[in-house]
Specification:
The complex is a heterodimer of chains A (228) and B (268). Chain A has 8 helices and 10 strands. Chain A has 228 residues and is an alpha+beta fold. In chain A, a hairpin with a 4-residue loop joins strand 2 and strand 3. The radius of gyration of chain A is 24 Å and the shape is globular. Chain B has one domain. Chain B has 12 helices and no strands. Classes of the chains: A alpha+beta (228), B mainly alpha (268). The interface between A and B is large, with 39 and 43 residues.
Chain lengths: 228, 268
Amino acid sequence: MRNFATEFGLPARLTTLLLAIAALLLIAPAQGCGDGSGDGSGWNDAASGFRGVALEPGPRPDFTLTDTGGRPFDFRRETDGKVALLFFGYTHCPDVCPVQIAGIAAVLRDLPWEIRDRIQVVFVTTDPARDTPDRLRDWLSEFDPAFVGLRGGIEEINRIQAGLDLPPSVRLDAPPVEGDSYEVGHAAQVLAFAPDGRMRLAYPFGTRQADWKHDLPRLAAAKTRPGS
Amino acid sequence: MQWWCAARGTAWTWSWQAYPGVWLLVFALGAAYWRAARGWGPAGGSRGRPGWFVAGLIGLWIALDWPIGALGAGYLASVHMLQFVLIGLVVPPLLLLGIPPGEPELRHRAPRRLARIATQPLVALILFNVVIVITHLPSVVDTLMASQLGSFAVDMAWLAAGIAFWWPVVLDRPERPGFGHPLKVGYLILATIVNTGTFLYLTFSELPVYATFELAPPVYGISARDDQRVAGLLMKVGTAVVLWTAISILFYLWYRSEEDRDSTGAAG
C-alpha cells in the first residue's frame, strides 16, 4: 500500500493536520458570513430595533400629485394605515434610483402577501420633463407593477421635499451635455412612514436588501393607531 | 489615473478605459520570460513552448484589462468569478507550460526552498483553496475591491495560488518521482470538490452577499441575486471544465506512458 504522506513528501502528522484544515474549508464560507449585511450599513438604531435611521417623528405629508394613469393621488389618504416608502428620483438615474428601488422590490417579492399588501412604495419623479407617464410606468413596472409613480411640477415637488427636510432636486448640466442626457441631483434616501402615520425612518443609499428584509416586516406589523 | 481596475461606483459605460498597471504587469512577465528563456539549454524555448506562455499572457491581459477587469472589479459578481476562473485556473497552467522540462533550475537556496514548500501537492492544494475562500469572503471582497491596491492584491493572490496549485501537475521541478499521473489525477479530482462550500454559499444565499456588487450601478438591469447565482454556477462549472479537461489529458498521457512501457517491455 502506498504511503499517502510519502507520495506527497510530508510527515504523516503534518499531512493529517493539513487534511483537517482542508475539511474545514468546505464549511468555512457557510459559517462565517451571516446574511451578508452584518452591521456594516452603519445606520443601526439600537433603541428602535430598526436598521434605518430614526428621524424626528412627524405627520405624513399632505400633498396630491398625478399618478401615471393621469389620476390625482392624495398621498396621505391613499397610504393611510399602510407602510409608505417615499422616494424622490428619476428614471434616467444611472445608479442610486435603480439600486434603491430594485433592492426594495427584490425583498418585497419574497415577503408573504399579507405583509406585502401593507406596504406601498411611492416614487416621485424629480425629472418631470423626461419622465412622461408612460416612461415612468414602464420603468417602475420593471421592478414591481404595484409601485406608484407620481408626477408634478418641479416647483411643487421641491416644495414637498423642503417640507420633508430634503434638498431640492437640481438639474446638472455640467459637463456640457447634448440633448436630454443631463443628470438630476436629488436626495438619495427612502423615507418610511409607519402605519400609524407618525414614525419616520430614513434609508440612505447603501441600504442592503438584508436591511430591508429585517425592517419591512417590523414596520408592517406596527400598530395603525395608538392603542389599536 | 486609474492604474488597476477597482470598484468606482460610477455608471457603467462601454467607453474604453485605460489601465496601464495591467499593461505593465503583462509586459513585465513577458520580459522576465524572455530573459529567462535566453539562459535555458538547447531545448529551452523550442517546440512551441513560448506559444503556451504567450497564450497565458493573453489570457491574463483579457482577464485584467477593460472591459472584463472593470466589470469584475465593481459591477458584476459573475464577471468577477469569470476573472477568478481565468486568472486562477486557466492562465497558470499555460504560463507553466511555457517553461521547458528541467526548468527552472532554481539555483538559489531561498527560491528553491520556497518552491519546494509551496508546490508540495497537499500544501499547494490547501493554499489554493484557502485563497479561494478568503478572497470570496464578503468582508474581504467589499474591502479590497474598493481600492486599486486591494483589487490588485486579490488578482495577484489568485495568480500566485493558481501557479502553486498547477506547479506539481505541470512542472517536474523539484522532482517528485512518486507523484505520477495517477496521483495527479487524484489531486485534480480532489480540487473539483473542495470549492463546493463557496459555490453553495453563493448560489443558494437568499440575499446578495457582496455589497460591492449589490450596490453597484446596474448593468443592463441584471438583478444582484441573479448575478450572484450565475457567479456561483460559473465558479462550479468553470472550475469543473478546466479541471476535467486537465484530468482527461493526464489520463491520456498516463495511458500513453503505460502503452510505451508495455511496448518496450515486449520488445526487450
